[in-house]
Amino acid sequence: MEFTPERTVADCVTENIKASHVFKKYGIDFCCGGGISIQKACEKGGVDYSLLAEDLKNVGVPTENEMDFSKLPLDDLIDHIVSKHHTYVEANIPLLLQYSQKVARVHGGNNPELIKVEQLFQRVAGELAGHLKKEEMILFPFIKKMVQAEKDGTELNVPHFNTVENPIKMMEDEHEFAGDTFKEIARITDNYTPPAHACNTYRALFDKLAEFEEDLHQHIHLENNILHPGALKLEKKLR
Prior knowledge:
With 239 residues, the protein is an all-alpha fold. The protein folds into 2 domains: 9-57, no CATH class; 69-238, no CATH class. 70% of the residues lie in helices and 0% in strands. Helix 6 packs antiparallel against helix 7. The relative contact order is 0.14.
C-alpha cells in the first residue's frame, strides 16, 4: 500500500484493514491512538520506521471478506457494528467473567497477577455494558436520524445534547479507558502468555482475552476513525 511518514495510523487502517496487523505486530495503537502520524507512532513506541514501512509496503489487497468500511453508508456501518461487535461483547463478557473468577480463585495464590486481571476485567466489563447501551439508545439513533434527514431533505431538530460532538467525545473517552485497561491486562499477562503449569481454563482465559482485545481494537477503529468523523461531517453539512 502507498503511504508517507506523515500519514496517520488510522488513515492507513481505514484504507486497508490488513495494515492493522502490521501495527499490531509493532505494538502501535491504531484505534484510540491512531490519530498520530506513522513517524510519530514509531518514535513514541521505539519502533524502527524502516522495518515497519517495509511491512506496510508488502500489505496485500483486502479480500472480498475484508470490507472497505469507509465506503459504507453510516446507517449500514452502525448496523454492522451492532450485529458484529456489540453482539460479540455481550456474548463473551459472561464467559470471561466466569473464567477470570475461577482462575483467580484457583491460581491467584501462586500467580497474584490473576487477581488483578479479574479486577480489571470486571471493571471494564461493567463500563462496556453501559457504553453499548448509550451508543444504541442515544448516539446511533441520532446518527441514523441525520442520515434519513439528508436522504429526505428535511430539517434536523437539535438534540438534547446540542451537537453530536458531545456524545462522541464521551464515547471516545470511554473507548480510551477500555483500550488502556486491556493494555494493562496484556502487560501483566506477558501479552496473554500462560505459564507452563497453566490448566485448560487458565489457557482458555488468556486465549479469550486476546481475542476480546483484538475485536475491541477493530470495534473502536470503526467508531473512532470512520463512524464518528462521518457523523461530525454530516451534522456540519445538515446545519
